[in-house]
Design a protein that fits this description.
Layout lengths: L1 H31 L11 H6 L5 H18 L1 H13 L7
Helix pairs in contact: 1-3, 1-4
Length: 93
């Protein structure tokens, strides 16, 4: 029983981290395509700096967005995979 509660808590935390990470990647992509929501809080100088026009810089920033999204999926998938392997084990307390 206790092990199942811990397992549920760990899965909940992992999926919450994953969802927040995906939202972070989506917000970065939104800024990259020209969105300005919440970007004005950083100031106008940084706003200009965040709007690169060179193709190499844009490609690098898109790679960062993809990396953020990819890493956001690691926590929930790793936790689910770990617990999928241990579900058949008897509880020993």
């Amino acid at each position: 029983m206790r092990r199942e509660i811990i397992r549920t808590a760990v899965r909940t935390v992992a999926w919450t981290i994953g969802v927040l990470g995906i939202l972070y990647a989506v917000l970065s992509a939104y800024w990259l395509v020209g969105g300005t929501w919440l970007l004005a809080t950083l100031g106008t100088d940084l706003d200009r700096w965040f709007r690169p026009r060179e193709l190499l810089v844009l490609a690098g920033l898109w790679l960062l967005v993809l990396a953020k999204a990819g890493l956001a999926t690691v926590a929930p998938l790793a936790v689910d995979r770990r617990y999928a392997r241990t579900t058949n084990r008897p509880d020993t307390q």
